[in-house]
Amino acid sequence: MAKDKTLYSCSECGASSPRWLGKCPGCGAWNTLIETVPDAGPGKNRLSGAGQYAGLAQAQSVMPLAAIEATEVARTPSGIEELDRVLGGGVVEGGVVLIGGDPGIGKSTLLLQAMDALQRVGLPTLYVTGEESGAQVALRSRRLGLEASQVNVLAEIQLEKILATIEATQPAVAVIDSIQTIYSDQLTSAPGSVAQVRECAAHLTRLAKATGIAVVLVGHVTKEGALAGPRVLEHMVDTVLYFEGDTHSSFRLVRAIKNRFGAVNEIGVFAMTERGLKGVANPSAIFLSQHSEPVPGSCVLVTLEGTRPLLVEIQALVDGGGPSPRRLSVGLERDRLAMLLAVLHRHAGVACADQDVFVNAVGGVRISEPAADLAVMLSITSSLRGRALPKGFIAFGEVGLAGEVRPAPRGQERLKEAAKLGFTVAVVPKANAPKKPIPGLEIHAVERVDEAMAAVRGLG
Asked: Positions of the region Lon-protease-like (predicted)?
């Protein structure tokens, strides 16, 4: 069977060329020609006609939303509670999940554990590996303590053979590890190229939607930490998960960046052990330092990750700087730190213009929500003055440039989580103050930054 001819089309203007060129002949843009498969003919597409994708091309009649029958998607728990939390409750039939992360962070380990757990509850599974041999996967399963595992393993990188195997074995869940190693015979470019990744992911996505097989794709990341390959890969799939955390630390975070079947920005917390990744039931314990007595420069924040309130310790160190003081932050935005220092000076009279300021979120967690503002400012003031905040103290709230303290979303849940973990004093925005007192928690509601500073001084 003759191999299909390929064209190179420009991603900017759509012009095509029979061979690759550095400069597009149509618009003059550089490095925009991408290998593609030409159309089969006028009015036809290479994926239409008789075959496994024909059912997806059927014309549907126009119907109002109210007349369309909609049922909740069925979910199958993966056997790993923290992974189910990130997925929105479990594996969805026909869903496509893309999971990315740094090399060696635990992607293959977690998926092998999940496949084994699904197989043990009676679901047929298939683990396709393009990076290892079957013997290497078997050795890893024995290291993880997965004795007598019945997970089917296929060591293959050709897309057509993988699709044929999936059609023949009909697994409930198939893992492709990784999508950058798979290639299609329809294209001549190397595995991992933009054209190959896009084409292979499109075929696997159509297979999942047509047959109801859940497909999990493992994706490589670039030096900057983004998923390698075309951005269309993330648009194509239903769920995008990112592994976060330092490979030198024993803790890993799995964050949902996109989820059509659940909450976005939900996180799962895992501990890396000799027997693989284990879910952490109380993740707040990771992000809190164990001080026998309160120390200056430390303030506990209640942050919200998806639907889960987490207690994270914010540490600040203010030290005498030179003519050009440094502002460094780990886990928080550096530009926001500079803005908060300006607000602190203008509206609370706390000057740090000639001081080095270092801010750190304990445990390697990244905090992007503005509700951390008040805790950052209180920790900086505590370090500058050398006075520790009271024991059992928490704070949260967004701070504006005018010095106002704005409410944080779902403040009641944050306060209840803090009270449950034994915290006794809280400084929060006035709009987040509960109507009914929370047992064991003394709440100070403030509207401005200077009020918050005065409230803290009164506690000391």
From this structure: 356-460
| Annotated binding-site residue? 331 | no
Determine whether the annotation assigns residue 102 to a binding site.
yes
Q: How far is CA 352 from CA 124, 295, 362, 404, in A?
A: 61, 20, 23, 20
Residue that terminates a domain, selected from 229, 256, 281: 281
> What CA–CA distance (Å, rounded) separates 164 from 298?
58
Residue with tokens 């005018």: 402
Determine if residue 105 is labeled as part of a ligand binding site. yes
Q: Is 189 annotated as a binding residue?
A: no
443 Cβ contact partners less than 8 Å away, ≥ 6 residues apart: 415, 426, 428, 433, 434, 437
Q: How confident is the model at residue 52 (pLDDT cuts 50, 70, 90)?
A: very low
Largest Cα separation within the chain, whole Å, is 83
Q: What is the per-residue pLDDT across 329-379, written as a single tens digit (0 to 9) for each?
A: 999 998 999 999 999 999 999 988 889 999 999 877 889 899 999 999 999
Q: Is 106 annotated as a binding residue?
A: yes
243 and 329 share a domain? no
Same domain? For 307 and 421 the reply is yes
Rounded CA-CA distance 445/429 in Å is 5
Give the number of domains in the chain.
Answer: 3
Residue 18 annotated as lining a ligand binding site: no
Q: Are residues 173 and 247 in the same domain?
A: yes
* Phi–psi pair at 157, nearest 5 degrees: -125, -5
Residue 64 lies in a domain: no
Residue 217, SS3?
Answer: strand
84 and 152 co-located in one domain: yes
Q: Which residues contact 296 (CB under 8 A, 6 or more apart)?
A: 382, 383, 385, 386, 387, 388
Match 């909740």 to its residue by tokens: 72
103 is in an annotated binding site: yes
How far apart CA 188 and CA 200 sit, in angstroms, is 13
Query: 214, 249, 281 — which closes off a domain?
Result: 281
Instruction: Name the pTM for this structure.
Output: 0.78
Question: Same domain for 413 and 324?
Answer: yes
Provide the residue range defining the domain that includes 25.
1-37
Structure tokens at 217: 């794709």
Tokens 């029979």 appear where? 18
